[in-house]
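Task: sequence design from structure.
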């Protein structure tokens, strides 16, 4: 059982804190925001793509946990130093839950992990079965959503975000691309967004704030319903673009509130 863990991404840190296993953490990512106290208590040893290999090695970790192919080069460097590395690549809501359970099992907290995940599953199923009456009766009333992770190139929602949009009562207009493992598989064009006519634009640019003015000035975007009606919302990447506890809780809550607010405004205009 690992006792000295380095978390190269935020979701692992948040999860270990939730499980009461934070004493096992000896190093974290610079992008860690949840919980806020983590950065005060743990040394920062990595960004997202890169990391301080010598500093990580000096911590004598018995497990380093990373995420996705984006960290492949960092993982290679750490492995070349004979360090134990686990890189996960969860993309769907179910894969996120499976990964969280696996990590819980690895640190001897399977029971706590299972209890938390069972509560989460019940909550999600409850939300699915308690969608607004207007949506339940007329599926076409689900707001069509364009979720943008990056602006240049334009990147649409990753798989778990698309699923959470659906759970919250919306329709991901690029659901056909959400399962793409590489971000380039989720590139979209201005013309494609125009054609799919989203009613809601959710901007969630990883690493920088949403620039609404630049969105409004995109060529031809003035005819997109979401832009024409100024239905442009910004989300915090820390609560939705991390494949861990945050997206399943606070991220889903915010999405649900966004959908409810949009439907309320739409109903008021009918």
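Answer:
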């Amino acid at each position: 059982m690992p006792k000295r863990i380095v978390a190269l991404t935020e979701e692992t840190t948040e999860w270990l804190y939730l499980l009461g296993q934070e004493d096992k953490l000896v190093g974290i990512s610079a992008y860690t925001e949840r919980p806020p106290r983590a950065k005060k208590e743990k040394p920062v040893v990595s960004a997202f793509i890169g990391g301080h290999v010598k500093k990580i090695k000096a911590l004598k970790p018995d497990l380093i946990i990373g995420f996705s192919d984006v960290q492949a080069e960092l993982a290679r460097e750490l492995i070349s130093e004979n360090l134990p590395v686990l890189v996960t690549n969860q993309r769907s809501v179910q894969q996120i839950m499976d990964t969280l359970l696996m990590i819980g099992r690895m640190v001897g907290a399977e029971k706590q992990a299972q209890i938390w995940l069972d509560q989460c599953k019940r909550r999600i199923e409850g939300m699915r079965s308690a969608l607004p009456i207007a949506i339940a009766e007329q599926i076409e009333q689900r707001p069509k959503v364009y979720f943008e992770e990056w602006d240049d190139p334009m990147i649409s929602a990753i798989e778990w975000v698309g699923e959470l949009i659906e759970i919250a009562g919306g329709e991901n207009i690029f659901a056909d691309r959400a399962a793409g493992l590489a971000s380039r598989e989720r590139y979209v064009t201005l013309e494609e967004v125009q054609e799919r006519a989203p009613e809601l634009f959710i901007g969630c640019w990883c690493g920088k704030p949403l620039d609404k003015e630049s969105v409004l000035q995109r060529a031809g975007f003035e005819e997109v319903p979401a832009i024409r009606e100024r239905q442009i919302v910004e989300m915090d990447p820390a609560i939705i673009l991390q494949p861990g506890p945050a997206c399943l809780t606070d991220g889903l809550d915010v999405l649900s509130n966004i959908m409810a607010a949009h439907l309320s405004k739409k109903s008021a205009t009918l």
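The two ends are 59 Å apart (CA to CA).
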